[in-house]
Amino acid sequence: MSIATTFSPSASAERRSVIDEGASLERLVEHTERQFQRRFHRAPRWLAAAPGRVNLIGEHTDYNDGFVLPMAIERYVVVAVDVSRKSTNGYGAHLYTAALDKSELVSFESPDVAQMAPWARYVYGVMVGCRERGMQFGPLDVAIQSNVPLGGGLSSSAALEVATATSLEAVTGQSLNHAEKALLCQKAEHQYAGVPCGIMDQFTSVMGRADHLMLLDCRTTEVKMVPLADPAITVLIVNSNVKHELTGGEYAQRRRQCESAAQAMGVASLRDASLQLLERSRPALDPLLYRRARHVISENDRTTRTADAIEAGDWRKVGELMYASHDSLRVDYEVSCRELDLLVDLAREVGESGGVIGSRMTGGGFGGCTVTLVRREKVETAARLIAEGYQEKTGVQPTVFTSRPARGAHIVQLDCSGTGL
Fold it and tell me: Annotated catalytic residue: which of 20, 201, 211, 230?
């Protein structure tokens, strides 16, 4: 769901590089302040930022109580807030999104969520959740800005939710613990946006740490920070700029298939299954359910092994596991597509000699992005080869950017006397 905007002040400028540098967080904050000033005719008192995320490995495991290995990216949603100076007139917040240059008045007294613009429901749901936890505020004026790429599976919606919750912490002076804030935002997405997401996106946006990946146990919500300390390694994210519109409810369908496979094997979820149990249970499983289960079980194993390999600096093993993950998503889980497969194949062709460590699709699938680990000294050439090869074969120009693991949600400015970043 497209919810804020993608701000890149140099987007129309000619570039020698295929890598989109985007706007720094500092510039994004400045732009958000200007947007607030233009809309509400004064400076905001509070600003908060929350990042998008990319998942290095561990796909379609979160709703199976499994493991994921995401990181926060250096792309943020910024939310600017002040107490409204106008008569309340029954509304709780005046929301403004720069993407559409649209406003929405939302009420806590007699809300009609069905009539709200889809982008506003994310914000409203978080506000309701915060009020339910005793965080009193309002009426508020709110402006939203973002440079998280939209529609590529990089969690722009979770970043908006978490930035909203973080801004309300600043407004009220009441802090939520990390897990509570992430779960509040997830609930808002479930109830108000109608998206049955797992916990990975919100947890990553809340808890991201610079130069660290996050190994998240989606059953216990236990987090282990995995250092990605080597500055010679960077993450290349390539947006295919295609999203296949599917009508069969594929996401919900796969959840049901996983539940059916777990039931047939006599376990609570596929997290509790092993490949040995899967083979013993194979006669009782439909071949399709067998493949779905094989992906989830093997992906959990690949995820924990990848975390160990990164800590050990075994980059060859990391690459093998990333490619194996993509092959499993393509063959067993069937959520890849021609464009994602092409991007991964192009990365394989660049190979170790060209600086590529490993590559795979990331996100729900059927379009969106690939994530590729690349040696920084060769990232420019690798990115160009992948982008040009993709455009030549598809006629679509991909969007390419790099990121190191980034800082999670934080308050940028506490009030008008704050010093900012």
Answer: 201
